[in-house]
Specification:
By secondary structure, the protein is mostly beta strands. Strand 4 and strand 5 form a beta hairpin.
């Protein structure tokens, strides 16, 4: 059975614009709702943030780590977690 996931636009979402005031060195359980990190790889700079999501039919809540490529100006990955702590830990890797 397929799940329909509804993703919410958080204040730090690239859709609303990427601002330096939204960027921190590390995400934690107190700042993930409004902040993001910028991570450098060998070939790209990634804007990584956590947002909430929910499954439409059953109302299950998720925490989604999204990675946005600053070089390509597009979302390149997303990963769902069942707890904010797991999502924050993954986002900081």
């Amino acid at each position: 059975m397929h799940k329909i996931i509804d993703y919410f636009v958080a204040p730090q979402d690239p859709i609303l614009g990427i601002r330096s005031t939204n960027c921190v060195d590390k995400l934690n359980v107190n700042n993930w709702r409004t902040k993001a990190t910028v991570q450098n790889t060998d070939v790209d700079r990634l804007y990584v943030y956590v947002t909430t999501a929910s499954e439409i039919h059953y109302g299950q809540r998720f925490y989604c780590v999204k990675s946005f490529s600053l070089n390509r100006q597009q979302e390149i990955s997303q990963q769902l977690f069942t707890s904010a702590e797991e999502a924050v830990a993954f986002a900081n890797q």
